[in-house]
Amino acid sequence: MLNRIATHIKKHFCAPEVSAHCDGPCGVYDSASARIYAEAVLSMTKKILDLNPSVGDHATANILFRYIAIKEEQAQKTKEELLILWTDYFKPVHLEKYPDLHDIFWKAAKLCSACKVEVNLDQATELLATVEKIHTMFWSTKNRNVAWVRAS
Question: Is residue 71 packed enough to be buried (19+ CB in 10 Å), middle (13-18) or exposed (0-12)?
Answer without folding.
Answer: buried
